[in-house]
Every structure is written in structure tokens, then in C-alpha cells.
Amino acid sequence: MKRDNPIGVFDTGVGGLSVVREMATALPRERLVYFADRARQPYGALPHDIAEGLVLESLQFLLDQGAKAIVIACNTASAAGYEASLKRFPIPVLSVIGPGIPAACAATRNKRVGLIGTKGTVESGLHARMFADCDPAVRVFGQACPLLPPLVELGKVEADDTRLAVETYLHPLLEQGIDTLMLGCTHFPFLHKLIRQALGSDIPIIDPNGYLVQELQAVLTRHNCLGERQVGQEEHRFIVSRYPDIFRDVGSMLLGKPIRHVEEIMVGKPVEGYEIPEKDMYDPKKENAVRRFLET
């Protein structure tokens, strides 16, 4: 690990920018190389072994770009490939799943915690197992929210369709009597306003990203590898496998500052042979039939 090497950040889309936003505050001297595998999203609707292979392929790409450490800034990708990545790669790999769970255990009073994420994240059961290790009394109520990531990908963070989707997904959790909500997808911090409106003011919302960045900072410190870049020098690299212009525009809006350049590089081969109903939702050229999807 060399100080001047970048930190690799991986997500299937713009969600990982919520982690980048935290890193900009806590680790302003670090240089980043961010890869978004937009050509093959959503990973969460794929079989575990297929998704795991895509994660390892994407992390290898970041390693080839000189990453000194890699953050899997995607809960779905973490659930699919984090354990395998620890055995595969010679540099530190950090997962967004895990950080934040102690805070959620401390926040809940009735031991009923809601978890929102993709289908792959919720059905993996990884959060539930980690909660059980932290506090066996906590019950985790998972809710898959397949529409929310694509809506964020298209920049619709305050649209009426997004509000409808948020309310629809959170309603069953409120009926279960949760008193704490864990964000199980890095896209969801960008929907904090809508989520707060749907939950009301009394339910804490736990965003793991800040805890993840604290863990990253500790790892870099332990390896004597904190960056020394002067702010404004050597801009971060942003790489996507599809739709670079949309990533640049939406990413700039989400970060609140311009992303000047986005490279387009296809990593691996397209995934074929799987029927994924929400896949078209990620395509900006196709109509987003949000209401029809929610009714199915």
C-alpha cells in the first residue's frame, strides 16, 4: 500500500457517491477511483454465484487501477462478494454491511429494527445474522425496495413516483412496529428527506456510511497509508460501464459539486439469460412504469 495510490470505490451505480460524500469530509486528502458497473445492474436480482463473480471481476478492475484499498459501497455487492473478496485480494477490502449495526442496536428501544435494501441484500440474511451477533434480542424486519435504486440513478430523488414508492415500501415496516430503520442500500441516503417524511420524526434512521468511513480511516492509519494529496490536486477518477453522461449529471447533482469527466470502460461480459422485471427501470430511454410495477 502506497500513500499516493487511490482508494477504490465500487458500486453498480451512483449509490456509492453517498459514501464518497462522507469520505470528502473525513478523508479530504485521499484520491479516489470510482467504478460503477451500470451495464450489468441490478446485481440484486441475480443468483448469488453470478453476482459474486461480477463483484470479484469489478474489484479486480479497481486493483488493476492501482487501488491501495477498496470499499464495496454497495450492500448488494457486499452481500454477494465481500467474503470471497477477502480471500482473493492482497489489499484491504471493506464492506458497507456491518458498520452501523451497533448504532442501530443502541438506538432501538423495542428491539424491532426495519431494514430496507435490494432483494439480494434483504434475502441474503447477512444483516440479520450480524444483528444477532450484536444483540440476539433484536428482530430485523426486511423490506426489499427494488424501485428505489433506479429512481435515484435517474436523479428522481424528490419525484412524486419516488415518494409513492418510499411510502409503499415503508408501510409494512411501520405496521410491524419498528422503532429504528437501517438503510441497507447506499442509494437511500439521497432519499433521506422522503424517508423521514414517511416515517415521522420519532424513528431513528441509521446510515452506515459514516461508520464505514471511520473504519476505512482506521485501516489506513494502521497501515501508515493515509493520503497526503493537497485538496484540488489530482482529481478523482470516475469510471462507468454504461451511460457516462447520465452518471456525470446525476452524480454532480447528488454530490452538490461538478463531476467534470467520466470514463466509459466495459468490464467483463454482459449478463444474459435472466428475467429481471426492474432492469428496464435503469434505462433512461424507457418509460418508468413505477405505479404499474408497485401494483404487481
Task: Describe this protein's structure.
With 296 residues, the chain is of the alpha/beta class. It has two domains: 7-97 and 210-278, Rossmann fold (3-Layer(aba) Sandwich), CATH 3.40.50.1860; 101-208, 3-Layer(aba) Sandwich (Rossmann fold). The protein is built from twelve helices and ten strands. It has helices spanning 17-26, 48-64, 75-88, 101-107, 119-124, 126-134, 148-153, 160-175, 192-199, 209-222, 244-255, 290-295; strands at residues 7-11, 32-36, 69-72, 93-95, 112-117, 139-144, 180-183, 205-206, 237-240, 263-264. It has a six-stranded parallel sheet, sandwiched between helices. A four-stranded parallel sheet has the order 6-5-7-8, with helices on both faces. Helix 1 crosses helix 10, helix 2 crosses helix 3 and helix 8 (160-175) packs across helix 9. The longest helix is centred in the first third of the chain and has 17 residues, at 48-64. The mean pLDDT is 89.
Summarize the structure.
The protein is 42% helix and 14% strand. The chain is α/β, with parallel strands linked by helices and 296 residues long. Helix 1 links the parallel strand 1 and strand 2.
